[in-house]
Request: fold
Amino acid sequence: MTKRNAYTMRDVARLAGVSISTVSAVVNNKGIVGPDLTAVVQKAITAMNFSPHAGARGLRIGKTNILGLVVQDITNPFFVEALRGVEDEAIKHGYEVLVCNSNDQPDLELRHLNALYTQRVDGVLLATCDSYAARQALVRDRAPIVFIDCVPMKAEVNCVVTDNYDSCYNAIRYLIGLGHERIAVISGRLVHSTSIARVEGCRKAMQEVNLPVLEESLREGDSHIESGYRIGLTLFQSPDPPTAIFTLNNRMALGILRALRELQIPCPERVSVMSFDDADWAEVFNPSLTTIKQPTYEIGKAAVELLLQSIQSASDETTLEPRQILLKSTLCARDSTAPVAKS
Amino acid sequence: MTKRNAYTMRDVARLAGVSISTVSAVVNNKGIVGPDLTAVVQKAITAMNFSPHAGARGLRIGKTNILGLVVQDITNPFFVEALRGVEDEAIKHGYEVLVCNSNDQPDLELRHLNALYTQRVDGVLLATCDSYAARQALVRDRAPIVFIDCVPMKAEVNCVVTDNYDSCYNAIRYLIGLGHERIAVISGRLVHSTSIARVEGCRKAMQEVNLPVLEESLREGDSHIESGYRIGLTLFQSPDPPTAIFTLNNRMALGILRALRELQIPCPERVSVMSFDDADWAEVFNPSLTTIKQPTYEIGKAAVELLLQSIQSASDETTLEPRQILLKSTLCARDSTAPVAKS
DNA sequence: CCACGATGTCGAAACGATTTTATGTAGTAA
DNA sequence: TTACTACATAAAATCGTTTCGACATCGTGG
Reply:
């Protein structure tokens, strides 16, 4: 069905009584075909509901007009919003987007990258799930690539990320400003460059005011609700629980809140909670949640812009210095954070 | 870059000292090449990091191994979870997925469908944003199609949906069982078959117990937070406010909850809230939200299975009766619903 | 009246894979 | 030895486009 009844340029040419190359010229409106013939061809095209075969076109011109996007976890609203930015920008430039979810599995990510290469996508956007694997080597000389959110360690690559370090530095400063001294930080998995940068930012802020950086209150989660919940429970069973918790991802914040509710610990009276990543429910929550909001949509958009430049320069045979784009976040102060209670 | 350095079968053949057809036979392991030669070819393939050009292959065999997925609104977690189901199942059968977001705009949806046809995808999964437009005509004789979630009105098509009618019937019965008589229903836009079916289910349950179906408490929203909020506000400014609210989508429930908080109306003491669509925050909310949980992942999975059958039968030239698959939902009773308060 | 760009159209050769047909080489039996 | 079967490989046609060079037509200026 798919191809049986599909009309080709030859059919159109026959119906219009012109040659194939004329049809091609009309389809790609090269402007070298006379207006009367153009009209005839156009009529034939619409009559047959003809649409050119992208695969054949791609084979000939060596370009598919498809971009690949590989994300760690499509379940995370962060990546969905980035995807929107990617898609909108891609469409604007006539590209389609092949979306792959690696589900935080490096081998699946690799498989996706290989599949994208087989499809000969013109470029790849990658939110890698393992900053230590040398992914960039795998795609080198295959297709231009731009990393988003999570980038390879110590490698000069094109990437677009939030300024994680600064964001977290500011977040902790904010908590310190409220009088908190016992601050727990719950990070995502430390194989992600994002997590590492965020933790560093937190550390810096604490050290700056000579707060002891409590290793036991720096916990590594896995970005899912369960880990936040579990860590929350143990954190409050310790003899000297924190007065503020900063989760480096929004779903772990949900876990913390569940733990608090279960333990009947009032927020923000006894403990302040703050989270990286904003979400639509954050404002409606009771108490509404203080968050750091990333310019998520813009990350996707900027990444595509960078990728298209990269593709362009590759076809020009010019070399382009890898660019690192850092985007600023916003601190959304709400009700889940409050000055530390006197004890 | 993309194609400059890309090796072809000819290169592999040259390196291995065999003919192109032999390489092809090895790549598609047809099992007709001797074991020793196969080894030689394999070595050449890995040495060159060769991977076949999907476009060329597709051109020849008339199959791209790509499926298209068009959704109304990728921002809605429902579609993300369905997407996961689609992708996992697609990968399992060697397909890639081209994801498109129509953003609830019929013209954008149409544009996406045309683009997918141009790409010659082997099949399309469509969550249409307008049940009244005759989308199926547009794709007929182009590619097999399976509708998910939102289907065209009065048309015999392949589709996979939740049993919306029954789900809502049961939901309202549940509220009635708690003693509620003044029940407000907030639907999504009534151009979606889902909304229509859900409203019908609600109506049936109310009529069955001779509850007056209050047209003024049946409000049409647009599935976004704002509309829930706005409707919530007006609903409680009416002289005789409802004792229970059932939103037919989870984001509108967020809007309702915001309105309740702003108006200082306690839930569930003064009003019970219930929502279609479960979400990860629903359980953590305060009070935790009673929801109807759809088998979202399964919808995606089932849709791909159906689509692959459809593709198969199309290439067999056999005809297949359109199938409608109805999946059951689950009622998750939590704290936001309670017996009606005595006044 | 011829030479000459300019303009507009066409024919044919790619692009990289698959598949059919043809060819070659052994091995077996008459 | 010859013929015939098997089997492994080679060559060529094909899929639907794009694009380059060729060709025809025409008006203009010499």
